[in-house]
Specification:
about 180 residues, two-stranded parallel sheet, about 30% helix, 4 helices, about 20% strand, alpha/beta, 3-stranded mixed sheet
Length: about 180
């Protein structure tokens, strides 16, 4: 969801690419592949959940010692803590509700949802054949949209560093690279 949200934001605002090994002005990838505003609370919540679960069920061993010299008796069993169990259930419920709330977020309009489909991303990223001799677009601030005039009834769309027009409802579009 977050990958698609970041990809779709290219239709709204012009920005540089996020890559593993950035060359100025590119941006580096996120640590743990998530923005910090999601990764840090998630790590804290899962750490607390694991701690609460570890405290909710535990091994108990009781050894009975008799004063009259009889054999000692050891009883082993599982114990549980209702407070820790309630805490684990509460944290788990909050995590599920947060996931459901994320599912209701709206994506930026103006770009088809590609997710992590490499075919769609590749098709959207290839420049028009007339732009091949130009400077490397990967090092520029890019935006997604209509990048040229109508060709064979379709408007060409893709990433470009020049002015782009937003996509319209009902428009017919084709990615720039004709191989796709």
């Amino acid at each position: 969801m977050l990958l698609t949200d970041e990809t779709n934001s290219f239709a709204v605002v012009r920005k540089t690419l996020r890559v593993s090994h950035p060359i100025s002005p590119q941006r580096s990838t996120y640590w743990l592949q998530l923005p910090y505003r999601y990764a840090i609370p998630q790590m804290i919540a899962f750490g607390a959940l694991h701690w609460a679960i570890s405290q909710s069920i535990f091994l108990v061993q009781i050894t009975l010692y008799y004063a009259d010299g009889q054999d000692n008796v050891a009883i082993s069993s599982c114990g549980w803590s209702p407070v820790a169990l309630a805490m684990a259930l509460g944290i788990g419920l909050v995590l599920i509700l947060a996931l459901l709330a994320m599912g209701f977020r709206k994506y930026h309009a103006g770009m088809p949802i590609m997710g992590s489909c490499s075919w769609a991303i590749s098709a959207a990223c290839h420049p028009q054949r007339t732009q091949v001799g130009e400077e490397n677009l990967a090092l520029k601030r890019l935006m997604y949209g209509v990048v040229g005039p109508v060709v064979d009834g379709f408007e060409p769309v893709g990433f470009n560093d020049k002015e782009v027009q937003p996509l319209r409802d009902g428009g017919l579009y084709k990615w720039l690279d004709q191989r796709y």
